[in-house]
Amino acid sequence: MTSADNTVTVDIQDGIAVITIDRPEVRNAINASVLGQISQALEELADNDDAQIVIFTGAGDKAFVAGADINELAVRKPKDGLRAAMQGVYEKVEQFHKPTIAAVNGYAFGGGHELALACDIRIASTNAQFALPETSLGIMPAAGGTQRLARLVGVGRATEMILTSRRVKAHEALTMGLVTDVVEPQELMPKAKETAQTILSKGPLATQLAKTVVRHGFDADHSTGILLERLAQSVLYSSAEKVEGTNAFLEKRNPDYRAAQRKDDEA
Questions:
Q1: Residue 44 designated active-site
Q2: 20 to 30 Å CA-CA from 141: which of 67, 103, 239, 240?
Q3: pLDDT in tens, 137-170
Q4: Cα–Cα distance between 257 and 244 in angstroms, integer?
């Protein structure tokens, strides 16, 4: 799957869809066209059973996504802020029902950092750097950065990063919990795919519901989060996936979740 202007590509292999922002000449900066292509890719992947997990990355070895296209940013008006196109697309990424991984190679600045924050898991190469430099341009992070970063690393760290536009290198990002792994650049995609394959070996409905409960439960009060957990578990208890998973464990064999999915679809 490739866009008409070749700035976003989607490659699907072994249950994994890799979405690549491919504008290395501008360090994969995101413009309106790229946002539209990401949104379209997610819509197409949502019902594609060949893609059970999505990895986002950037082309080349310099940048994941170096931010928004400044040429577009320079002419934006108040109505564009209210329309919040990038924020809307990243909401789609965060709420996507299949697990998502950001494989961060190089710079993840501004909108690139916010794209990584919208993913479920972030893995960085040793040359990765994270920053929200919007205040240097007289604006602020507004594609989820003020909210997701604070929830991930704490209000104090997030505020300091946003107000100072400070760059955070990979190992500091690991220490503060911004990423879960740091690997050498040549190991980044193998590590991301290894993580994806580990998730793929689990029950697909279980992983999707677990993701949903963690995401929505975090922003709810404790009682509501616990209720979401209980309801999701009751759904899983009624699934062919649970029967297959427990039987496979007792029979000391690998579970066939594909077959279980077909049973659930036919029920």
A1: no
A2: 103
A3: 888 899 999 999 999 999 999 999 999 999 999 9
A4: 7
